[in-house]
Amino acid sequence: MKKLLVVVLALMMLLGTVAHAEIAGKQVALMTPYLGSVTTNQMVEYMKTDLESKGATVTVINTNNDFAMLASRIEDVATSGQTDAIVLVSADPSQIANQLQDAFEAGIPVFGCDSGFIDGMAVNATSDNYQMGELIVKYVFDELMGGKGTVIALTHRPHPGVVKRCIAFDDLLKEYPDITLITEQHVPAEQPINDAQTIVENLLLANAEKDSITAIWAAWDEPAIGATQALKEAGRDEVLVTGVDGNQQAISLIAEGGNLKATVAQNFEGMAKIVVEEMEKLFDGQEIEKGEKYAPATLITLDNVNEFIEK
Known about the structure:
Blueprint: H1 2-21, E1 27-32, H2 38-53, E2 57-62, H3 67-80, E3 85-89, H4 97-105, E4 110-113, E5 123-126, H5 129-144, E6 149-155, H6 160-173, E7 179-186, H7 192-206, E8 215-218, H8 221-234, E9 240-242, H9 248-256, E10 260-265, H10 268-283, E11 291-294, E12 298-301
Helix pairs in contact: 2-10, 3-4, 5-6, 7-8
């Protein structure tokens, strides 16, 4: 019996080794313009840790919000002859399609993690961003606003995931005649918390009367955090705020019971896992289904926020 157990354990170890053999020794480039974002950084770290644990060599390339530099670095990577796979993290591939074509022609598989998808790519792991947009917008419009009032939208439409949430906002707003959009404000990606705080401070000066703003809908969490800070400093506790992503600072603010009322938690670890699993299959010679693959998302409110606070 003891010998049988030893054999079984040995076989399990062998199978585990074989399962990761196809990715060992591979050179993988994780490329993003937004490593300063909390959630982008999380995804990069999840993938880097997972890939390195399986024997891959991982290079992280961050272009600090510069898409022209990202395009240039993709050209460098594609022509280097030393890269086995590229992963775009939180980057719109349609903006760098010409450079990605170089990678496709070089036979380098390109994956996305919370990015968009264009022909030639292998897989983009993301959330169903339109569905997330619907989820949070309906919660704001129905549960928080009761179908009436005024709303400010804080957006960043260059991001492929964010723009889908914004489209959901646009579509649903048409169905609520008693809700008025005061303004949509673009929030730059470099310092979204600080920039959103400044934007909202100015909007509060222009809408100084209490209850003149019912809600602020932010397309991701960092602007929601900045808006919350501005509202708190101005004593405008009547204004409702929501975000999307489920980052821990936003979750903590929801738990405090202040202006920030809800977010949608994306499964960033799940996205990273999908990318690594699909990469393993591809390197193993298996045929993969190309396109977008979704990791499930969850609405977080005061009712369930304690389940998501990191202990």
